Amino acid sequence: MSIKRKQPPKSLQSGRQYTTVALAGNPNVGKSTVFNALTGMNQHTGNWPGKTVESAKGICKGAKTPFELVDLPGTYSLLSHSPEEEIARNFICFDSPDAVIVVCDATAIERNLNLVLQIIECASRTLVCVNLLDEAKRKQITVDLEKLQALLGVRVIGITARRKDSLSPLLQTLDEVLSQEVGSRTSPVRYPTSVESAIDIPVRALEEKQISLKGLTPRFVALKLLEGNEAFLHEMKRYLGTDLSAELSEELLLAKRQLQALGSSQDSVTDLIAKAFVSTAEQISASVVRKGEPKKADLDARLDRILTGKWTAYPIMLLLLGLVFWITISLANYPSAWLSVLFSFLLSCIGEGLSVVGAPEWVQSVLLDGVLLVLARVVSVMLPPMAIFFPLFTILEDAGYLPRVAYNLDRPFAACSACGKQALTTCMGFGCNAVGVTGCRIIDSPRERLLAILTNSLVPCNGRFPALIAILSMFFVIGGTGLLASLHSALLLTLLILLSLGATLLCTWLLSRTLLKGIPSSFCLEIPPFRPPQIKKVLLRSVLDRTLFVLGRAVTVALPAGLVLWLLTNLFVGGESLFSHCANFLDPFAQLLGLDGCILMAFILGFPANEIVIPILTMAYLQSGSMVELSSIADMKLLFTENGWTPVTAVCVLIFFLFHWPCSTTLWTVKKETGSIGWTVVAACLPTVLGMLLCALIHLVFG
Amino acid sequence: MNDCMRLDELLPGRRALVLSLENEEAMRRRLRDMGMIEGTVVECVGISPCRDPVCYRFRGTTVALRRRDSRSIRVRLVIET
After folding, report:
1. Tell me, which fold does domain A10-178 have in CATH?
2. Which terminus, N or C, of chain B has the lesser number of Cβ atoms within 10 Å?
């Protein structure tokens, strides 16, 4: 292959700060591994403008000069109409990246080539990066990379993205690709003769009229004009500044007539084009891929027989879920305790500092007993379980277990006219409902996505677990502390979780028969092969992307909440605090639900973050005006029973903890994802009504 | 020869040749993007615990489809020799 150094990358001419390289690929091919390896900590995540699709950009040092790497959404194709595919296609066509790296899975070259061929058609420079060579080797699959490069007409490099030594050859090759001249490219794809001769007409017209296509090839533009995809033509018109379908209307009409004469309608042009990609991919793959006798596939199949087996699938799912909770609960206590000690030390330091500088008494009180105390409490209770739960969850995700969960649970969700992927977003909700709501983006159908968003907060998040566990161990767990007790509380907690999963299904079913009527859309889920999880990356990504993100938002809401709480407990009207007035006012209604005024008030004040409900409650019962730590669970139980708690009260509180309004962060996320206040209100009312009904029922029967 | 059938009738371990996709537009397109077109050989590799969806393998990829969707795919059984 001849490489000429004539034309510098376009961005250098246009004065863009960095050379731009786009990273494309199918889902589950290790694209994010490549992205993280290349950009390291220099990345920035957000949303694509106007879309709820995540975007990630980062700066990579490169072999010689740094460049900006843009991670495109994982897609199987660029031809369809999903938001992800539109973003990827528009970026490659109209943002004119200097090169596109397409990451491929060496074990499924044939399917991956479909996207590769489509990208070669519209990108200025393409580098095909065949990943997972180690996995292919284990599966006795060999790919002739030289031959692939010759057949595709673009540079091809083989890598194992998990291994660091793969990176420098990749960067070297990218550097060579970037210095290639962007000239006439020949597409390796041949369409049926009828299509080929039809596109010749507009292609010739484009060349004769010498219309500037700003880097797009006449062949590609002609194809798109003939296909007549409205959304794409609109974007192209904006990009080129001229309406080509009007300008070339005569030629296009001629081409369409010719197609019709040869027996293909306009609709089937799209079909013919898509099939040409698939069959070209098939031909190329047949000549470059050699498969030996598979060994590991057998192991995968055996694992799948157990993990998705008729009798074993559900018990294993429950066991894994229980295990994750047990690990989270039993490990989170230690860092929580350390953090509390640390924070009380810091608070006392700040207190001394304030009295040294002579701050007024009330300022000290607002800061120490209000704002900072709530903040410390939220962080020390919330951070450790999340820092443990999310990595565990990500390990299961990384190993390929989660798609199997969606597969196992699709039938029950389909019975509720929903999507099996809702099982995954529900599981994410155990970590944090706000993260779960954001995760609903993986569901394609808008109706089913909304179902998943509205029902997400029916499962308890990490902010509610500590409270659930505390109440469980106060009133229902046998045998004090130790292994037996922690197993017992994990078991009871699993029962509560089964209840919340049941409620999720019930509410999904109700919604899909009332507000969100519709039939389940088609379902097409790739089941990726099992892969050993990359522990180090998992830790890093889950802490950065999920834990810190949630924590940051929790902190911003905990601060004002602390202030409000301080005001309510420290402002006195007629000898009683505002808090007591409110609690007394709510008491008659709360009694109907088997609760009391203080409990309901604590839930209302816990709107910013569920983890402050129990601290507020203990504070209210103690009437000390600020939150305190009781030294043991037994002390707390005594305090609660003195204030009239019975086991029935405890059950009602547990139920209300599971089902009440979502926290402010979650509701804010719902508003952002749905873009509708109406649906946000539904998301708030649904669990509240359910919880109140259940509590009232329990109170009526047992109270 | 009565070996023409719908994909949802394919038993685990058996393979079939896709004759036509009669799904609605969006699903047909998605299947095509994953590499299922007329002439593709598909193997049934597993059934989920509730008997629906079912896993199929083609072109090196495993994809789960609901019976509702796979019923719209006409196939011909490949007789193993």
Report:
1. Rossmann fold (3.40.50)
2. C
